[in-house]
Design brief:
single chain; alpha/beta; twelve-stranded mixed beta sheet; ten-stranded parallel beta sheet; flat
């Protein structure tokens, strides 16, 4: 973790930016344009925010290079110009972030480690953690309070599992995986069929596992179900938000982002670099191509080709969907014209 910068000059060095104005303007923290104090830095990504710079209290701003923005009073204020303000802000936030609270190195007295489980070097096992038989916890892993690890689970080095996360039997996590609080990996898939007598439902067993590759992050209270056969797989570097459902036998590619409240039904295939907005629903056995984008609250019932942007319910090419939305907004006007025409056919609408 980088040392927090104390001045505009130090902030510019941290984010590899170009400094304009008062080099020694103090930086004690980061805040929004609305709430920043004179000794705090803020950030500006477009002209709309740039227009508010002169009236805000912040002493320093990280500014996208393409945005027209003047320093103003250079005796007390400064700008740090960068190519990408969002990425620069991320670096600054990391420098100011406090050290995360973690369990001490070792195993808490209330933790339960079953026979045959193997713990790597420098692991941190918190209160009331359980690790099932024959599971492997890699070097440097952190398991916060209440984490439950089933039998024959493998965690790669440097994983962090937050409070009450659950990894059920035989699942595999790669290096540096993060499970946020309450995430559940490896629950049985949702599969039922009517019984022969027609009076009950037969539960379909799921024999497979879940594989989370290196660098995957799963949000709080999200679920990734085990496969019926084989494995449900989440590709390296993919990030899944809170309250998402990934059903049995889904395969998600690398570096994909899925926003909150999204649900994938069984056997969905998602490519690399896909962006899925919040609240989307994807029907079973659909395929979403590499680098595709899906607008929030979309319902996917067809395959999406590589690089396409879709939206709507049911989802379709976003250009078509926007034309549909525009037409729907005109319906009240058209309805009035049609009513007048019906009431007086000889009168033009």
């Amino acid at each position: 973790m980088s040392k927090a910068p104390a001045t505009a000059r130090a902030l510019a060095e941290l984010v590899s930016g170009t400094l304009e104005g008062h080099a020694d303007a103090p930086v004690r923290g980061l805040n929004s344009l609305e709430d920043a104090a004179p000794d705090e830095a803020t950030f500006i990504t477009d002209e709309r925010y740039a227009a508010r710079w002169q009236t805000c209290r912040a002493g320093v701003a990280i500014v996208e290079a393409k945005v027209a923005c003047a320093v103003g009073d250079a005796s007390r204020r400064a700008l740090v110009r960068v190519e990408n303000a969002e990425l620069a802000l991320a670096k600054a936030l990391e420098a100011f972030a406090p050290e995360p609270e973690r369990p001490a190195v070792g195993v808490h007295a209330s933790a339960v480690i079953e026979p045959g489980a193997r713990l790597g070097a420098d692991v941190r096992i918190g209160a009331r953690v359980t690790v099932g038989r024959d599971s492997v916890i890699g070097d440097g892993c952190t398991l916060h309070a209440g984490v439950a690890i089933g039998a024959q689970v493998t965690l790669g080095a440097g994983c962090t599992l937050h409070a009450n996360a659950v990894v059920r039997d035989r699942c595999t996590l790669g290096r540096g995986v993060i499970l946020n609080a309450g995430a559940v990996i490896g629950s049985d898939g949702f599969g039922y069929r009517p019984a022969a007598d027609g009076r009950s439902l037969v539960r379909i067993p799921h024999l497979g596992t879940v594989v989370l590759e290196d660098g995957v992050e799963i949000g709080a209270n999200s679920c990734v179900d085990r496969a019926k056969f084989g494995a449900t797989v989440i590709g390296a570097g993919t990030k899944i938000d809170n309250l998402c459902q990934i059903a049995h036998n889904c395969r998600i590619g690398r570096m994909t982002v899925i926003a909150g409240l999204t649900g994938l039904a069984g056997s969905v295939r998602v490519g690399d670099g896909v962006q899925i907005g919040g609240g989307c629903g994807i029907a079973d056995h659909r395929s979403i191509g590499h680098r595709a984008r899906l607008a929030a609250m979309s319902g996917v019932m067809d395959d999406i080709p590589d690089g396409a942007t879709w939206g709507g319910y049911p989802a379709q090419d976003i250009r078509t969907e926007l034309r549909v939305v525009a037409a729907v907004r005109k319906l009240p006007e058209w309805s009035r014209k049609l009513r007048r025409l019906i009431e007086d056919p000889g009168k033009a609408p």
